[in-house]
Amino acid sequence: MSQQLINHSKDLKRLRDEGYSIEINGGHLFAHHIPYVNSNREIKYGILISTLNISGSSTIKPETHVIMFSGEYPCNKNGSSIEQIRHANNGTLLGNSVRASFSFSNKPPEGYANYYEKIKRYAEIVSAPAKSIDATVTEKPYLPVVDDEEGAVFHYIDTNSSRANIDSINQKFSNQKIGIIGMGGTGAYILDLIAKTRVQEIHIYDGDVFLNHNAFRSPGAPSIQELENSISKVDYYYRIYSNMRKAIFAHNYYVTEENFENLQNLNFVFICIDNNRARRTLINYCMTKSITIIDVGLGVNVVDDALIGQVRVTSANHQKNDHLDKYLPSGVETENDYVTNIQIAELNMLNAAQAVLKWKKLSGFYQDLEQEFHSVYSINNSFLNNEEKCDV
């Protein structure tokens, strides 16, 4: 509930977005990590506490200019008390077992218009002596904030979206259940990007073990001890990205015709596999179930002692899929240079970024003027070719 109130209140949201460590508890606003100087001229950290004036699901103008403080009495840098704001000694026990030691009074002519102005002003007064002693101390620590809202997919608040005021646009992903089939380099980078969105669920599929060569084509930096443990790819990535978000489901098996039905509740599938026959049967299944897909691929070869190649992204949905036979790889796989294990992390990363960009366009996050369903980037001439525009 506290984060919902913060999200719906411009003043509280601004405090959070600017790095203040705020909390709502028991009808009070707590601003933690406020630096101050005590009578021994030591830098300490206290808590500013204000009553909250709320109408519905958001704050309104503070009813009082008085604020409470938990900590020793703040002093000037010479150790003398800041008497200009002294109001009363307190001792009230508030939420989270925080005891308000003192109350302060610093009233503007018109009072405080909102809680941003109130907290900011008192924080400036209290922390100024500490900053004059040590310029590195701050009342804006940008600490991670636990997301306590019901249905939240992240373990902590996405302040990146909040600071950019694109929360409403990000909601376009909130009902999506995403599948990533194949957790080699490109699939892993796709997970890295999708995990930072508000999709409802992420399902990752791969029956292989995370080996040394995967470390050189994937995000992150596994230790040698992790590689020696022979952990499955999906469990390795689950362990990493579940630190950040909920609803990641690791499926330690290859997707085949025998288990296609496990995909039927997904909205969107990224296909990151090398087997052409498996790719085609999988896409056919997704089309029958109206599951939108993005298929990715790399083709790299050695020419004149240098690498050339292409990065491909092919999309399809129930409205636009008549182009698949024309563009998807077919036949028996050849041992091109990528399959034979040249480590090309940046191409995997680029392929993943292009795929996720297309997914976000299809989801309405980015404007899409081209509406292409097939895109190929050529490495040696930096040419991007878009084809198969959707006229639906």
UniProtKB/TrEMBL annotation:
Coiled coil: none annotated. Gene3D superfamilies: NAD(P)-binding Rossmann-like Domain. NCBIfam families: PRK06153.1-3, PRK06153.1-4. Pfam families: DUF6791 (PF20590), ThiF (PF00899). This is ThiF family protein. It comes from the Bacteria. Residues 170-328 form the THIF-type NAD/FAD binding fold domain. Residues 10-159 form the DUF6791 domain. SUPFAM superfamilies: Activating enzymes of the ubiquitin-like proteins. One of its GO terms (molecular function) is ubiquitin-like modifier activating enzyme activity.
